[in-house]
């Protein structure tokens, strides 16, 4: 049995779709969910639903019974995440799970001085805990989801002709979430992945000046890129009524990008997919060519 945590989320649901498409019987897939109501679609496909919460150790241990492999999708509560993740790993050990595939995070500076330390620290602690657990493991150090780029650009980027982000000329090797999910499915059904840490990045990293150039070509309008300071950015977004936590998150990623924290490329994803991942140019074309 393969269990997918976060199965009602985008990454989990997409991985289950790939497993089914690749011929895995739904009777061999278990979806861990917090809310059974949200899992009706998965249930209708024949996937077994088990209810568990990363905050509740007993629910996890009960849900992991009879499971051979887990795709452990990181939780979204940045504050409680370390404790939650340690619950998942120890419950898996207690339940006799053989292999955990974990969706981690990638930044060059893996110390407290990283602008993304708040995001990275629980992932790094989880990686250590997994490695020490004695359970077979595979770590996916995921780059930024490319699907988030339109949110960084802003809804009206073509209309205003301006990208406003404190990312300088820094680059990011962002990847489509669906391709991260497909790679996860391939690992779950493949072999020889034990003990490996994969850099889930694109083959080429890209910058916002490059995005502005691509968008100008696609839209036929000049799209300018302005890189303010983080303070100027926060002030402008606050004036537009954007909540502080979103500003912090967007600013953290942008500043990290400016300092080269996200400028990683690797062929690991290409090898896992058996093809090159979708490029930023192709993604922008898909999103903006009809606007
Ligand atoms: P998502 O759609 O928000 O899904 C998160 C999933 O985790 C949901 O199924 C959610 O359950 C579940 N979950 C959250 N807290 C839980 C808990 N305490 N116990 C059990 N399940 C819990 O996010 P996603 O897009 O699939 O992304 C998955 C993860 O990747 C995120 O949680 C985050 O850690 C990470 N992420 C990375 C990037 C990146 O750029 N690399 C971007 C976004 C997210 P409910 O449906 O019940 O809420």
Throw out a few tags for this protein:
7-stranded parallel beta sheet, 15% strand, globular, binds NADP nicotinamide-adenine-dinucleotide phosphate
Explain how this protein is built.
The protein has 291 residues and is an alpha/beta fold. It is built from 13 helices and eleven strands. The protein has a seven-stranded parallel sheet, with helices on both faces. A two-stranded parallel ribbon has the order 7-11. Strands 8-10 form a two-stranded antiparallel ribbon. Strand 2, helix 2 and strand 3 form a beta-alpha-beta unit. Helix 3 packs parallel to helix 4, helix 4 packs parallel to helix 5 and helix 9 crosses helix 13. The mean pLDDT is 96. The structure holds NADP nicotinamide-adenine-dinucleotide phosphate (NAP). NADP nicotinamide-adenine-dinucleotide phosphate binds next to helix 1.
- Roughly what fraction of the amino acids lie in strands? 15-25%
Q: Can you give the mean pLDDT? A: 96
The main sheet orders its strands as 3-2-1-4-5-6-9
Distance between the termini: 44 Å
Shape, please? globular
- Counting helices, strands and paired strands, the structural category is alpha/beta
The total strand number stands at 11
Hetero ligands: NADP nicotinamide-adenine-dinucleotide phosphate
């Amino acid at each position: 049995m393969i269990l997918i945590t976060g199965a009602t989320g985008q990454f989990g649901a997409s991985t289950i779709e790939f497993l089914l498409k690749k011929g895995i019987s739904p009777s061999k897939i278990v979806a861990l969910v917090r809310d059974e109501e949200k899992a009706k679609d998965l249930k209708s496909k024949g996937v077994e639903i088990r209810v568990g919460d990363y905050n509740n150790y007993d629910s996890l241990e009960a849900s992991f019974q009879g499971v051979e492999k887990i795709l452990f999708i990181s939780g979204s509560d940045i504050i409680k995440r370390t404790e939650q993740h340690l619950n998942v790993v120890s419950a898996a050990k207690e339940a006799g799970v053989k292999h955990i595939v974990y969706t981690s995070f990638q930044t060059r500076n893996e110390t407290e001085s990283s602008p993304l330390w708040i995001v990275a620290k629980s992932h790094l602690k989880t990686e250590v805990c997994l490695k020490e657990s004695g359970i077979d493991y595979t770590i996916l150090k995921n780059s930024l989801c490319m699907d988030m780029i339109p949110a960084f650009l802003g809804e009206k980027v073509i209309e205003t002709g301006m990208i406003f982000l404190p990312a300088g000329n820094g680059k990011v090797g962002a990847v489509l979430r669906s391709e991260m999910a497909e790679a996860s499915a391939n690992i779950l059904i493949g072999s020889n992945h034990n003990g490996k840490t994969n850099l889930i990045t694109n083959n080429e990293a890209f910058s916002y000046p490059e995005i502005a150039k691509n968008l100008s070509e696609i839209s036929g309008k000049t799209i300018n890129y302005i890189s303010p300071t983080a303070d100027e950015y926060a002030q402008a977004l606050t004036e537009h009524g954007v909540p502080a936590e979103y500003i912090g998150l967007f600013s953290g990623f942008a500043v990290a990008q400016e300092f080269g924290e996200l400028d990683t490329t690797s062929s690991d994803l290409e090898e896992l997919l058996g093809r090159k991942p979708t490029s930023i140019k192709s993604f922008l074309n898909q999103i903006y060519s009809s606007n």
